[in-house]
Amino acid sequence: MLRIHNSLSGQKEEFRPLQPGRAGLYVCGVTVYDYCHVGHARCYIVFDVIRRWLRHRGYDVTYVRNITDIDDKIIRRAAENAQPVEALTAHFIQAMHEDFAALAIEAPEHEPRATQYMAAMVSMIERLIELGYAYRGAQGDVLYAVAKFPHYGELSGKRLTDLRAGARVEVDTAKRDPLDFVLWKAAKSGEPAWPSPWGPGRPGWHIECSAMAQELLGNHFDLHGGGMDLKFPHHENELAQSCAAHGSEFVNIWIHNGFVNFDNEKMSKSLGNVFTVRELLPRLRHPEVLRAYLLLTHYRQPINYSLAQLEQTDALLSRLYTALRGLERAAAAAAPGEHSQRFETALDDDFNTPEAFAVLQSLARELNAARTQGHSALIASLAPELQRLAALLGLLSVDPEQWFRLESPARTASEEGAPTPSALDEERIESLIAARLAARAARNFAAADQIRAQLASAGVVLEDQPGGGTLWKRA
Hints:
By secondary structure, this protein is an alpha/beta fold. It has 16 helices and 15 strands. The strands form 5 sheets. The chain has a 4-stranded parallel beta sheet, with helices on both faces. Strands 5-6-7-8 form a 4-stranded antiparallel beta sheet. A 3-stranded mixed beta sheet has the order 12-11-13, covered by helices on one side. The radius of gyration is 27 Å and the shape is elongated.
């Protein structure tokens, strides 16, 4: 039984899809005015695993992950760069796709862009005005009347009285209530605008997801997710808009992932402590290191970014790859065993990826023991099981031999004992290994030892095999 923590109730709840055998999942996507950072990577890796697990459990999943391609930050960045908004967003959408592909984040069934759904947004706003939940302000904007929705604040646990008490004391004659939020912004000179019954303008951020979710998943669907920072106000406002417009429930289960922190502060562009995916990946052996690192902590818990922990994750993955090294990749899926049952129990319990990793490590230890004992039948069972379970997390996709030929993660210059990146390419390494084997065959052990030392100084570790061959890896 799959149980998921629902942010609305604060409890784990059994997943009961609205339509048997089908699952609708909407996740708020990237606002494309800059490169994706590690916080983005965590969110979309988490929901990639959730989508993979739902599919593994037999559900026909419709996954919608939108793109916000018009908002204030995009307009400002385009003006700073002296380029059209469309050129800016096209560049960062392409960059996002490249980053996600590197991290093995699979494409959703639908990736709607806000600018493609203006008609749906206008229609929903018209409906809200008709039902008395929205009004046109004095300055031409259309605003949502928060006080009209009696359940406002239930998702985030906030009360209207507390929110009003904490609001800035500002005179805003355009709003009836300081908590009212914009559904449609009246056009400003020089900014992109679309036609509407209230004159040219563009949508507020919150209405985008309500309209796109309704168009692609319906008025009421199974799962809605995003980062913890979206719970309020974005998801609270989405819920208010959609429930009011349709007179029905909006989402059965809300899922929110925790922050990625740096020095115990949330990564934020305003604080200048953001690491982009494309800045970080060149410092790692492989993108799988970042993917695994972000899954080693339960998705609802915060992560404190640490290069040392990334290196520990690299070592963990290397141990898993060591268990598979030298074995043929299984052509067929392994029959589920005890490890598979523990793995499934972990992920059925609110997608407990840390416990799932513990299962993979246990499986790898058992596989190593079977190899030491020459237990071929057990090896033939455990190796494909390890590969199959890891694949459900999007891991162990690299050929093990190739994994160890990739550069180990680079450390900061201030860290002691930092490994020296190898200046030798694979062809040169293979050539030196062949020369060493030839020297050993000629019983010229001094020359063989000299070659081993040369390779070691370049960060290459040799592992002589019982059959006479030599495997190598980068330190």
